[in-house]
C-alpha cells in the first residue's frame, strides 16, 4: 500500500510523541494513530537524558519559584503565559508516569525524591538515579503497547509534510527496510522529532538528532522560532561529547581550572562558600557556566588535552557510596571512555552542544500556525525555554506538551474532514521523483560526509558560544554555498533496502536548512541574551530584542526574519542574579 | 593520541544483489581510544558509503548498535579497540534474520515484548488526584536491575534455546515481565502467566546463563527467569492444594508485604 489512511500521524516516538499517542488513545480509542519513527521507539534520544525532570512536589517549593527560575533562566525570552501553565502541569505529568511504573528514586518515606539542579532556588528535579530519560522513555513505550489504536511504523523516515488548502493533510515517509516511499493521509499531524544538535560537530546528541521535523515544518511554511538559541551543556567528556549530568553538580561536584581554583566565583556566581548552595557557583545556569569556560580559556587557565581544552569536575569528596547510588551510569561512562574513575580522580569536561531552545513555532496548546499541524518536545518552541533552558525542564516539557498536542488534536479532529487522497497521491509521486533524481545523479564528487563536515565546522567556528557579525556572516555564506552544493550531492549506494547513504543525505538536507535558520537568526539579533552571546553586542537590549525571532523558509534563498513580542504576564525583565551569600 | 591500523572484516549482505552474506575487509586508521563503532563510522564516511548498520547514542544506552565482534555480542559503541586485536571480525547478531549488512530483523522480539504485557497492572490503581504510589527504596531495588534492559538483543544472540526454537519468548522479554511482576505497584503476574509460564516461556529456558554473561547492562535475565520459575511453581501448588484460595491476580496481597 502506497497510501496509508489514518486519523492522526505522529512523527517521532520519543517522550513527546509517545505521550501524545497515549493521551489520544486513552481519550478516544476509536481514533486511529500512526506512530511513525525513523528508529524503534526505545532508540529515541530521550533515552540519553540523565539528570532528571523538574516539577514542584515539595512543601518548600512553589509554582511561582519554578516559574521564576524558568523565566530568569531563559533571560526573559520565555512566553510567561506558557510557563505559568507548564509549571502547573509539570507535577501532574511526572506523577502520571510514576503511576505507569517509572522507577523514580525515592526518599526515606517512599515518596519520589528530588535533587538540586542548576539555576533553581529549591530542589525540584525528580530523578531515576542518572538514567531518568531512559526510564521515562521505556515506561512510556511499554505503557503504549497496551493501546491497540496505536499502530507503529518503526524505521520509517519521514520526508515531507503534505500541505494543501491551508492545512496539513499527511506526510510522506520511506519504509527503510524496503526503500519504498509511502504516504500517510492524515487529518492531523503531530511532529515530535527532537532537536538538531548534530548540526554541530561536538554534541551530546545521538546520530538521529538531525532536525528532520523542524526542517519539514519549515519547508511547509511554518516559521522556526528563536533558532539562534542553542544550549551548550558545560560538562561533556572531551573527545566523545558524552554528557556528565548536571546531577553531578547537583550532588555537590566542583568545577576547577588548571590551578585548582573554583573559577566560577569570578563570573558573578560566588562566593564559593558555604557549599552546596542552590542557584550559585556550580549550580548556576548552563549558559553562564559554558561562557565562563570560554573566558577561562581566553585567560589560559584551562587544561590542554588532545581533544581540546578542559576544566576539571571534582566529585571525589562525594564518596563512592553516594556516587554509586546516584551517579552510577556517568561513573561508568567516564571510566570506560576516558579511563577516569570519578571516585578517585577529577573528570575532565568541556562545554558541548546539548539542546536547541528554538524550534517549530507553536502556541501553549502545541498548535502551529498551519491548521492540522502540531508539534511538541525539543523540535517545538512554545517558548518556555526562552534563550536558555533550565536544566531538567526538557523531559517535563516532552510530557506536558506531548499530552497537550494529543488533547489539541482531539479538539480539532472532530470538525476536520478526511485528507484528500488524490492530493496525497500526487504529493507522494512528486516526492518519489525527487528521490529518483537523487539516485540517478551522476557522480559529481560531492559526498554526504564531506558536506556534513563542512557544515559542522562552520557552525562551530561561526555560531558557537560567542559569535560576532563577522563570524556569522562567514557562516551564513558558507551555508548558502553548502545548500547549493547539496544539489549536486551523489549517492554511492543505489540500493533500496536500508540505504543509509540515502537517509544520511536526507538528514543532511534537513540539517543544512536548520543551520541556515540558526545562523541567520543569530546574525540579526544584535544583542547578547542567554545562550546567544555576541562579541560585538555584549549587552541585552530589551528595547529592540525582547521578542522572538521567526525564520521563514524562502526556497533556495536565505530565510526571511520576522519578530513577535514576548508574552509578559507577571515578571518584568530584570537582571539575572545568581550567587550571593544566601540561597 | 596514537594511531593504529586495524583490519575490520565486516559481514556484508545486500539482499538485492547477493544471495548470501560475504565478508569484506577494510583497513582503517584508528585512534587508540576508539570503539568499534568509530571505526565503522570511519568506513562509512571515508571508505564505503554503502555499509549499513544501526547506531545513535554512542553512550551505551539506546541499544541500537548490538553486533557480534570477534564472536562476542556487544554494543559496538562500547567495544574498545584497546581490548581488541588488530584484526576484528564484525557480524550481525546471531539467531536473527539479517536484513542488510549488520542490521537484523527485530519484528519477532517486538512482538514478544508486547506479549508479556510490560506495563503496570495494578489491582487498585492510585487515582490521578491522589498523585503517586509509595515505594520504599528496598522495593525499588527489587525490580530496578531488571528495568535496565536496553533491548540490544545481545542475550538473544547467545541464547541456545532461542537458536533452536524461535517461539521461545527469550531472555530480555522474560526479564521485563519479571521486572513488572516484582514491582510493588503491580499485581499483574497472573495476567502475564499466559505467556510467561506457557510452553514457550520460562520452562523452555535450560539455564545455560549465557544471556546474563553477555548483558552489557548487567540485567541478569537468567536470574529473572529462575525467580519466575519458582514463583510460578508456588502458584501451581497453591492452586493444587488450595483451589479457590488465590485472588485473581495470583499474588496481590503477598506482593505488598514482600517488598518492604
Describe the structure.
- The complex is a heterodimer of chains A (583) and B (260).
- Chain A is α/β, with parallel strands linked by helices.
- Chain A has helices at 15-27, 63-73, 80-99, 132-144, 212-219, 247-250, 286-298, 320-326, 328-338, 393-413, 421-440, 448-462, 469-486, 500-524, 542-545, and strands at 3-11, 33-37, 53-54, 114-115, 125-126, 150-154, 156-164, 167-175, 180-191, 224-225, 230-236, 254-256, 311-314, 347-356, 359-361, 373-375, 380-381, 466-467, 533-534, 547-554, 557-565.
- In chain A, strands 1, 2, 6, 7, 8, 9 and 16 form a 7-stranded mixed β-sheet that branches. In chain A, strands 17-15-10-20-21 form a 5-stranded mixed β-sheet.
- Chain A is globular and about 70 Å long.
- Chain A starts with a strand and ends in an 18-residue tail after the last strand.
- The mean pLDDT of chain A is 97.
- Chain B is of the alpha+beta class and 260 residues long.
- Chain B folds into 2 domains: 3-104, Roll (Ubiquitin-like (UB roll)), CATH 3.10.20.30; 107-259, Alpha-helical ferredoxin (Fumarate Reductase Iron-sulfur Protein, Chain B, domain 2), CATH 1.10.1060.
- Helix content of chain B is 35%, strand content 15%.
- Chain B is built from 10 helices and 7 strands.
- In chain B, a hairpin with a 2-residue loop joins β6 and β7.
- In chain B, α6 (171-181) crosses α9 (221-241).
- The longest helix of chain B is centred in the last third of the chain and has 21 residues, at 221-241.
- Chain B is elongated and about 65 Å long.
- The interface between A and B is large, with 58 and 62 residues.
What percentage of amino acids of chain A are in beta strands?
Answer: 15-25%
Kindly report the CATH topology of the largest domain in chain B. Answer: Fumarate Reductase Iron-sulfur Protein, Chain B, domain 2
The CATH superfamily of the largest domain in chain A bears the name FAD/NAD(P)-binding domain
User: How many helical elements of chain B?
Assistant: 10
Largest chain interface and its two residue counts? A-B, 58 and 62 residues
Radius of gyration of chain B: 22 Å
Shape of chain A: globular
